[in-house]
Design brief:
This protein is mainly beta. The protein is built from three helices and 43 strands.
Length: 614
């Protein structure tokens, strides 16, 4: 889950720098000034909700050309969307899944501001909302966490000092066909608020962290009798814990094989604790790392030899970071490397490892799937993504709070803060989106050359880069708006005293890009936004032309000629294939001509991009 303070400065000041356990605990209690301020900051941080209509039936949308129903994607298909309004409303937060071993049905228990929604996702293209378990006493919280053990859901909430942990028997869902308002089967009151819960299904213990007990550390609960949770002890000597994972250890450290080990994410450290004896937990190590901001959450590899960890408030420049650990020696774990995303700068959140893949919830960048077969050499590779917040991929707390990738069917659930429940499926056979080889939006000078062959004859309206002024004559001719940013390439950017003052006159004007080295393989395309405008005094002798200059000469990609009728300026987009020039150094040449004598001619170009499709 996200930290309770909303900026790196505030969190670092309160937690990472002071390491004051009592302050951290106070910040999770809404009855304290600290807790009230934090909740206000979090609510202020949300942007306006972005909600999308549900996609139902068998018309789920495959990822094609880098999108699925408007969502950016790669190798991940969209199955369905249930907006928040259709599952109880409020903001979304965390969630967990359950598989009914009797019926084989799959369910999501979805945390929301005012409760937990239950959704049957057995048919992922047509999920069914079954009802809501309201928050205890109708209270509201932006943080709710859910785990499942022995057919029972355990639900905690932060910012509610009296919430405790609700227990809900999931077998009650059998036969439910219309939305219900559910009641809890039991409620554990050994703590009031909790930030997150983890479960060890092998031993039957829930580990609540960030509670108002145990100095904010690990509050251990025995749930072997699912409806009668009992307090099993505390891990309190290392202060506030944000999240953790507890396992029966079977890794390479023979000293601890077969013992129950918790990997705690303690604000500024990875802290490893032996909790086999609940009344006498033993801290094995406490290790910080370079670049710490707010140690958030992590997950072990299947062999318990490595671990991937996310830091919610480390710098996401130049890209989102995943910290790689060697935990083969539990007394001395080592942060061996950092994977830096080459494509996103989003705030990272929860992640889970299954086999050779890690499934990450990265807030504004959505679900990211990475291949971890090279983890021993600190090498991770992104192999898929589904971005539920298309507006941005930068830092901030919108979009994907959590993902749940553990269903046998392969359905992956994403909980969206503003979006609701999104169901997707990894499809590694989906063609990847094209990669950008070269692009120019003309906001800075990148080496375009006017009159590159010293053969231009135009006396005015020569190509230049700049902020264009609009001109009009029987309609808009030179556009005063660009496709992106402030500047574009334009034939004489000034307006002058009339539309004809700085238009193209007297002949041809040309501009050529710097040299661009094309890849040797794949499908190569150049695209650009352009317009060509002329008055009714134009003729077919006037033209706008785009060409590629290559090793064998110059080839025209696109050509328009004038006519004796009015043509107003309007941005259009063109895409042309460059695959014939793979491996070559090429240049893009743009030409415009007024060869009729005093025709009104204007042209513009913006957003030139060359892409490669593997």
């Amino acid at each position: 889950m996200r930290p309770r303070l909303q900026t790196a400065v505030l969190v670092a000041g309160l937690l990472a720098l002071t390491l004051a356990t009592t302050s951290a605990a106070l910040a999770h209690d809404p009855n304290t000034p600290e807790g009230q301020k934090e909740l206000a900051r979090m609510n202020a941080d949300y942007q306006a909700p972005v909600r999308m209509a549900p996609i139902t039936g068998l018309a789920a949308t495959a990822c094609s050309g880098g999108t699925a129903a408007g969502y950016p994607c790669s190798n991940v298909d969209l199955l369905s969307v249930l907006p928040l309004a259709s599952i109880g409303g409020g903001n979304g937060n965390s969630m967990w899944g359950w598989v009914d071993s009797t019926t084989g049905k799959e369910y999501i228990i979805f945390g929301r501001t005012t409760g937990a929604a239950v959704v049957d996702v057995s048919t992922p293209t047509a999920p069914v909302y079954l009802g809501n378990l309201p928050s205890y006493n109708g209270t509201s919280s932006s943080w709710r966490d859910i785990k499942v053990y022995a057919n029972h859901a355990y639900i905690g909430a932060d910012s509610i000092s009296t919430h405790g942990m609700q227990v809900f028997d999931l077998t009650r869902l059998r036969g439910v066909t219309t939305p219900q308002t559910f009641t809890a089967d039991a409620r554990y009151t050994g703590f009031g608020n909790s930030h997150t819960l983890s479960v060890n299904e092998e031993t039957g213990f829930i580990y609540a962290v960030g509670t108002n007990t145990c100095s904010g550390g690990v509050h251990m609960v025995n749930v072997q009798n699912p409806k009668v949770p009992t307090n099993a002890g505390c891990v309190s000597n290392d202060g506030y814990v944000h999240e953790n994972q507890c396992v029966v250890y079977h890794g390479p450290d023979v000293t601890y094989q077969g013992r129950e080990i918790c990997f705690n994410y303690n604000v500024d450290t990875l802290t490893i604790v032996d909790v086999t004896v609940k009344s006498a937990p033993v801290q094995l190590s406490r290790t910080t790392y370079a670049g710490v901001g707010y140690t958030h959450q992590g997950w072990l590899t299947g062999d318990h030899a490595r671990l991937l960890m996310d830091d919610e408030l480390d710098s996401d420049t130049p890209g989102t970071k995943t910290f790689i650990w060697n935990v083969s020696d539990l007394n001395a774990p080592v942060n061996t490397g950092v994977y830096v995303s080459p494509t996103i700068q989003a705030t990272d959140h929860n992640q889970y490892i299954i086999g050779d893949k890690v499934y990450q919830a990265s807030y504004r960048a959505g679900l990211r799937i990475l291949d971890i077969t090279g983890i021993a050499s600190n090498s991770l590779t992104e192999i898929g993504y589904f971005d539920i917040y298309p507006a941005a991929n930068n830092t901030g707390f919108n979009g994907a709070w959590n993902v749940y990738p553990f269903f046998p069917s392969g359905t992956i659930a994403i909980s969206g803060i503003e979006q609701g429940l999104i169901l997707v499926k990894h499809n590694p056979n989906t063609p990847p989106p094209p990669t950008t080889v070269w692009s120019d939006t003309f906001e800075t000078a990148t080496g375009w050359t006017v009159n590159p062959n010293s053969s231009d004859t135009a006396t005015s309206g020569q190509w230049e880069r700049g902020d264009p002024a609009q001109t009009s004559s029987g309609g808009v001719k030179q556009l005063g708006t660009t496709v992106s940013g402030v500047n574009d390439l334009v034939t004489g950017r000034l307006a002058g005293s009339s539309a004809g003052t700085y238009d193209v006159d007297g002949g041809t004007t040309s501009i050529r890009s710097p040299a661009i080295t094309l890849p040797g393989t794949g499908t190569l395309n150049v695209s650009m936004s352009w317009y060509f405008a002329h008055g009714s005094n134009a003729s077919s002798a006037d033209y706008f032309r785009v060409s590629v200059v290559h090793n064998g000469g110059t080839t025209v990609l696109h050509s328009l000629t004038g006519a004796g009728s009015n043509r107003d300026g309007a941005w259009a987009t063109g895409t042309w294939n460059l695959s014939a020039y793979a491996g070559q150094s090429v240049r893009i040449l743009v030409e415009t001509a007024d060869l009729s004598g005093a025709s009104l001619i204007e042209a513009g170009v913006d957003n030139v991009t060359i892409t490669q499709q593997p």
